[in-house]
Amino acid sequence: MTQQSAPRSRVKRFLKKTQERLAGLAAGRRGLGGIAVASFMETTIIPVPIEIIIAPIMAASRARGFIVATVTLIGSVAGALSLYLLAWALFDDLAQPLIDVMGWQDEFDTLETKFEEGGFWVVFAISIAPVPMQIAALAAGAASYPVWLFLIAIMLSRAVRYYGLWLLVLGFGAGISRIFAGEKPEFNPDTPR
Question: What is the pTM (predicted TM-score) of this model?
Answer without folding.
Answer: 0.68
